[in-house]
Amino acid sequence: MSNASSIRCLITAGPTREFIDPVRFISNPSTGKMGFALAEAALEAGWNVDLVAGPVALEEPDGAILYPVVTAEEMFHQVDALFDACDVLIMTAAVSDFRPVVQHAKKEKKDMASMNIELERTTDILKTMTDRKVHQTVVGFAAETNDVVTYAKEKLLSKNLDFIVANEVGQPGVGFAADTNEVLLIAADGSSVKLGPSTKAAIAKELIQLVTPSA
Ligand code: CTP
Ligand code: CA
């Protein structure tokens, strides 16, 4: 990888939605801010950026190719189609882990006192990509409320990643929806760097520098 303009980066951002019926879905509080900040930082570094985004209310980064998706399955297929051509995959997306087994075509009426919804696991996009990676640098995010570093290290190993960003969620000023963040970037060799507390833009810039493939 001799110059920045030859680096192609695939970034996923935002939540996914898993529909129960046309008017109800399961999702999570991700807003896509970290992923979009990373896309901006990668563009500033001169990289080519493919940005696969779930439903978010953010302005499209100028210069990125945006691929809007809704469900985890759509995100999987879009990432699957773009992965082989990328040099760096950064999965910031908060992919829904489960989806309803049945998606009703018509709106369900609330004429029952309670409701059980059977859920099934979605595809682990990151794991599926690392199982076939060749030269790619693959970066995951671990969204955790507790034992953040322990769980992040487990995911680094189990998903065969080059880096994982340990990200505490569920507290003000970090994680979902915040404009700021504080994370620990852990590399496969066990080394780690603390980034922030700072704006997501500043953290994104540092992250892009730190995960840049060597020449
Ligand atoms: N991820 C993925 N596909 C999924 C779920 C998660 O690619 N179906 C990715 C996320 O984008 C993130 C990483 O896996 O980069 C870790 O996501 P996280 O939710 O922290 O961990 P999970 O493996 O889903 O496990 P759990 O939610 O139980 O902690
Ligand atoms: Ca998860």
From TrEMBL:
InterPro entries: CoaB-like_sf, DNA/pantothenate-metab_flavo_C. It holds the Pfam family DFP. Residues 8-211 form the DNA/pantothenate metabolism flavoprotein C-terminal domain. This is Phosphopantothenoylcysteine decarboxylase. It comes from Coraliomargarita algicola.
